[in-house]
Fold each of these.
Amino acid sequence: MGAAVELKQEPNDPNCGKAQPEWTAPVAAYTRYRPGLSPYMHYWQQLRARRGQTAPPPDHQPEDGAKLPGQMAEALEDLIRRSFGE
Amino acid sequence: MIALAIMSAFEDFVNDPAGVLPDDAMNPDPQELDDSDLDDPALAYLEDAALPDPDRGCILAVIDDAIPFAHERLTLPGGVSRVAAFWAQDAAFAGGPGLDLPSGIELRGPAIGQLLQQVAAGALPGEDAIYRASGVLDFRRDSTPSTAYSDPHGAAVALLAAGFAPQDPAGRDHPLIAVNLPPRITEDSMGTLAPVSILASILFIITRARRLCRLVETRRGLSAGSVRLPVVINLSFGLTAGARDGSSLLERFMDAVSAVAAADLGPVHFVLPTGNNRQSRLFARLKPGEDIGWRIQPDDRTITPIEIWGPVHDGPPDGRFQITVTPPGLAPTTTAFTAPWQYSLLTGADGAELGRAYYTPRLLENGRWREGATVIVNPTCPQFPGEPWAMPGEWRVGIAPGSLDGVYETSVQRDEVIRGFPREARQSWLHDPAYRAEDEAGRPILSDPPASGARVVRDGAFNTYAGGTRPIRAGAVEAAGLSLTSYCSTLGDGQGGDCLLPVDRSHGLRGMIVRGRASGGFSIQAGTSLAAPQFARWLAARLAAGDAPADRGAIRTLAQLHAAQPNPTPVLDGIDRFLPF
């Protein structure tokens, strides 16, 4: 005979007993806004660095990207000036 | 001054961290443009016989893949090219006129004409040889040779927009400026690496269009700045994830370019496809505390991203907006972002990396903020052994309780294999038990039923490059009854675009006949990618005829005047299509 199996009532929490995934502590991906910058670009650069195809992106502190949203307007103005300015 | 503009504006393009460009494509010594393009016939944009009328001309521009610059329908009688400038961004750098460009080669009309003359004289063995002789097609290089394909996307698009029979006098007044994006941009199943190449392409088009105007002035003895040809730029590309509010750099740039009244160039209009994903279940609206199933397929060698864009608010980001992700078989976990542009890696119980999330709030033009985040799940089948991977199955993604009240637009990124490109992509989708794709008879349900309770929605799932205020969004109808095709996305108001054009032959016969790469070749293709160039062609004809619509609304009104079916969305028909047979 096999070992006895103790039957328990299914708990109400659907996640009971499931392993807990984790997020690493957040850090900044970039420190300065540039055209083409994106989460996808950052992922690809890290992947290519892991494959030894390019230099890894530098490590940053958590707050280093705080000014990026405001820098998009500057990048836009720069592109317009380059398109139509002399 | 123009020259290094393109170079220096795109530091990341030159450094190429994503590996889009082959090493031999890079320009090692970029130089400023000078005025030799106005003096040296070899550097001119067009031969004199192809220069447009300064009062009736309108430049057409196309950004795409594998544009057949040597095609007969881009010529005038005698093999004179109508292609003013063609930039192959990833071709091996070989000097030539495009010394100001960061990569690739530029061909201008006289040089293309010389190649056509060599074919006519038998010095080159045929039209196909032009692409090899020019350096645009080189099988020795580590790049997908899409220019060799018989019916590439770029051939259909460019020739719908700017193809004219050589003897058609209208052709001369519509010179073409074209950009071949790198094949690695096209083969990226998500297209997410494209924006920087597209931005560079737009700069190229504007600079060359301005110089073409100066060339017309020089050849005709007109005063400087007096020739201001309008430009219509067709961009038959798009993504499925994004903010859709015009706030990305690409959208804001297109809006700004169209708003500028340049002293030496006419108005610039953009035409984009509305999108093909109305029925794809890639778009949902969530509120704080809600989540949605996200089905990720096995054997996907590419990443699977989703973007979440929240409500607009006044203050700067305050850390309230967080994302909860539930991998298959694991418990939910919530991010802990505290500042813009942070990212976190998602690890499983064994510490293995499963994916990542980025916090990307945007500062809008009006000074307000919009919350944003991107979640990227690793490939379910890694490209190489040892690389991070994630389990397929039903993931869940949601808005953490406590996030700012409002609607969070949640969009799965496109992840499909592009025909002819060898990438092992698998499209993920959102799963909502309340969503019904078909009715009981098996017919597709084409609009969102009221009060269905579904979080997955059809309306509003349009091309995320097309959220700006000025570009025209062209949607697809079927030719038999001029009704919207089932795949054509809608703009959030139920309309399939600002203007509609026939693409499918009927609801039962998908696709239209389009020209292939070789003169005389053809194929059948479908999608709103083919509606956009038809509209670009029509708009260029109207601008050349003297119409001057100021904005999207005026263009739409103009289209209604000429439409086969003016309401609720104007449907234009009869625009230079292959006759059915």
Note: Residues 1-5 of chain B have pLDDT under 50 and may be disordered.
Amino acid sequence: MAFVRRFLSRPTTLFGLAVFLLIVAIALGAPLLFSRGPFSIVGMPLLPPGAPGLLAGSDVLGRDMAVGLAYGARISLLVGIASTVCAAGIGVLLGAVAGYYGGWVDDLLMRVTEFFQIIPSFVLLMVLVAFMQPSLTSTVIGIALVTWPQVARVVRGEFLSLKTREFVQAARVLGMRDSAIIATQILPNALPPIVVVSSMMVGSAILTESALSFLGLGDPNLLSWGSMIGGSRSAMWVAWWTSVLPGLCIVVTVLALNFIGDGLNDALNPRGRC
Amino acid sequence: MPLVSIQGLTVSLPPGADRPLATEDVSLEIGRKDIVCIVGESGSGKSVTAHAIMGLLPRGVTATRGSIQFDGVDLLQLPPDAMRRRRGRDIGMIFQDPMAALNPVIPIGRQISEHIRAHQAMSEGQALKQARSLLGEMGLKTVSLKAYPHQLSGGQRQRVMIAMALSLSPKLLIADEPTTALDVTTQAQILKLIKRLQAEREMSVLLITHDFGVVADMADSVAVMRHGQIVESGATRTVLGNPSHAYTRTLIAAVPRGESRLPPLAETRPLVQVKGLTKRFSRGGLFSRMPAIVALDDISLSLSRGETLGVVGESGSGKSTLARCVIRLLDPDAGEVRLDEADIAHMREAALRPLRRRIQMVFQDPFSSLNPRQTVGDILIAGPKAHGEDVRQARKRAADMLDLVGLKPEALHRLPHEFSGGQRQRIGLARALMLKPDVLIADEPVSALDVTVQAQVLKLLDDVRRQMNLAMLFITHDMRVAAEICHRVLVMRHGRIVEQGSTREVFAAPSSDYTKALLAAIPGRPVQ
């Protein structure tokens, strides 16, 4: 297919895709790769990478860093994807309704959207998560609640331009219901930008989750890359690997997702490329 | 010696284009003080030929063989810098869309003066003075040099473009479809202006057009192009009066003659009755109030089964608004639209929905009127599905419907982009007919099509109207097209009906001055 060929034509996209699939494989395979869980203590604290049996060294409590990084990938990917799916769901729904109906419906929904956009989003997120009690669910819901306006804006813009196209008017003339017109006529044509925005949002959601966990607002029963960095703050100067390795994981994952997003953008909008 | 002599010009397209050559072995002469027309359908290579003379071929498109002698110099051999100096000074060019060719954020006076100063050492003041006198020559005495393009009408913009193209007194003016985007009365004025300027300035003109009417009015000699080749060329009178090539004959035969063909029908009980229909568009927002634009002002009409009523008018006349109010894509402010007994003008959408199947529409733009992501089959069954028809039954009917509009049943599984403009209009018609409507509204259904395709689609519409006993409301800006297909016509201007009557009467003895002006502006009337 022409789309797949265009998508895979850029080396950065291929790199991003390969790295992302590797991380997914590690995250899914973590229980098979390691016999112990991420919280079990295996030896002396702050052993450097390469110490016997410890590929990535141990942390301040003597836990195996490699196990922690693998299990951390599960949390990061889960939060990134789940919160993006929720945000995209809210954004598509509200953006579609606002763009299609216009008028006062549009005004109302856009004022709500702006309300979320003008508040410093990280502060709002911290308040939300603290209010709901830190947990995986509250993190996902919190991130979704502060990021959906991006999607809503993009979807609204697409709907505003697509609804004036003659094939949409033709659908109205045929007597199709608004819900059917939105779902079968307009939405499929608005998908490319939604896919691109969403792929970028997964990366930023992973970053946000790390920041929350770093501040101790993540799920206390789960180990994530952010909480690993947070927990190793005090040892940063004596044991660099405790903070640098999870940090690298975050950088590489987000970079890979951004490469994929760029590739999707080029493949889906071939004319936008100069 | 002719001013321009093109010998064996072959222009190749980049690999992956739909054909290897844009033009093949094109030879053409433009005599001094001559108007030469290149006429052809889309994709014939007529624009590429013009752009090759200007040295403005798009990247990847190159002249691989032949020569273009201009005043004894081969333009194809000139280095880019020398060519740039000749553009504008020796050869001026105007385009189809003056809005796209003018810079929207710079006043027109400065655009003209900068053009002059790019080629001649001259002060800003002098150049502006020259711009002023040029605009005067174009009949724009009252237009300010400080006006921006969006403040002008389409015709005025094209005059500004001509002023700019002629500011350096070029020996050759190339006009690429200069009037295609304009109303018919404006088109007539612009063509007259070009002809006057050509005589006064003793220049040569190369006019690219798809319209044989324009050729008949303007050209000293004409070249007919098809698939990148010149199939026939010669003096206009010979080519139009006694065409030797079969393709030329087909093209000329496809041009509607502007003579009424259908007699009015006997009076019957009308199916659609519109009374006092009014529509205003308000302008301005929360803080500014501007007077509303009255797009429809007290329009009344009636339409019977088996009858085609043409609504003709120029842009802004309200004809499309009328179509959209009748079919309730727009909500009228006042008046009624009766379909049999029911008044659908103010019906709520939920109550209207079951009635929608009785009144269907064919749209203007063959490229935006079909959903690019649905197969033709899905497009055709969308309507029946919305009205609760069984999907399998609808699919079966869709195949028959394609046959009726002259397409093969394999088309069901293909996507719209695989079809040509004319085929897409057929698909759009099939979509409307799938609901077995009583009324068909056609909004400029052939204005985006080449003339031969236009003739085929018009014939199809007329056949379908006859077979299904449809009442058809046919919106068009083209009097010739209206004459071809309508029993009655209704002439609109500024939201009002200026004149209505049987096509025969209106064309033979128009009663209003506006209709007379519209008829007089038809290019090349009579064509032969």
Note: Chain A touches chain B at residues 165-167, 169-177, 180, 184-185, 188-189 (CB under 8 Å).
